[in-house]
């Protein structure tokens, strides 16, 4: 199977709705005027202040929340700093799934837990060092 290479992009962290935080998956919501990969959920490499992290990247309209505008948000594994107004460099590494509509926030939370497991498995299988 041929792997797809995605371009890195930068984004400035802005305040969001804090829904991810309530679900145990706090995200950094990003504003970027650079080209983005297609909508969906990705395993991502994140650079912040010359440090490397991994996490989940979501690009889409967040249909479970009934929103219409495209958003870009990243959940960084084992990261707890407050980084509003900071710039992150994001490199999507692997597409995990299409954006989906869930019947409840609890269903979304369960899917995020599955996404995290799948991302960590992919990182391990591809010999990326995770925290």
Blueprint of the fold:
Layout: E1 9-14, H1 19-22, E2 28-31, E3 40-48, E4 51-60, E5 71-76, E6 87-97, H2 105-125
Antiparallel strand pairs: 1-2, 1-6, 2-5, 3-4, 3-6, 4-5
Describe the structure.
The chain has 2 helices and 6 strands. With 131 residues, the protein is of the alpha+beta class. The chain is globular and about 35 Å long. Strand 3 and strand 4 (51-60) form a beta hairpin. It has helices spanning 19-22, 105-125; strands spanning 9-14, 28-31, 40-48, 51-60, 71-76, 87-97. The chain has one domain: Elongation Factor Tu (Ef-tu), domain 3 (Beta Barrel), CATH 2.40.30. Strands 1-2-5-4-3-6 form a 6-stranded antiparallel β-barrel. The model has no long low-confidence stretch (mean pLDDT 93).
Helix content, binned percent: 10-25%
Low-confidence stretches: none
Q: Structural class of the secondary elements?
A: alpha+beta
Based on DSSP secondary structure assignment, what is the total number of beta strands? 6
| Rg calc | 14 Å
Q: Return the domain count.
A: 1
Quaternary structure type: single chain
How big a fraction of the residues is strand? 35-45%
Give the CATH superfamily: Riboflavin kinase-like
CATH-defined architecture? Beta Barrel
Strand order of the largest sheet: 1-2-5-4-3-6
């Amino acid at each position: 199977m041929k792997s797809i290479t995605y371009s890195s992009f930068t984004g400035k962290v802005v305040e969001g709705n804090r829904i991810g935080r309530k679900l145990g998956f706090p995200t950094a919501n990003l504003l970027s005027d650079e080209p983005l990969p297609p909508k969906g959920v990705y395993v991502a490499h994140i650079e912040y202040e010359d440090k490397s992290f991994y996490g989940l990247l979501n690009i889409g309209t967040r249909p479970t929340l009934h929103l219409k505008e495209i958003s870009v948000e990243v959940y960084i594994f084992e990261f707890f700093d407050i980084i509003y107004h900071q710039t992150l460099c994001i490199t999507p590494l692997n597409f995990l799934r299409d954006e989906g509509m869930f019947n409840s926030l609890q269903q979304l939370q369960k899917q995020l837990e599955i996404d995290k497991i799948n991302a960590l498995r992919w990182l391990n299988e591809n010999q990326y060092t995770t925290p």
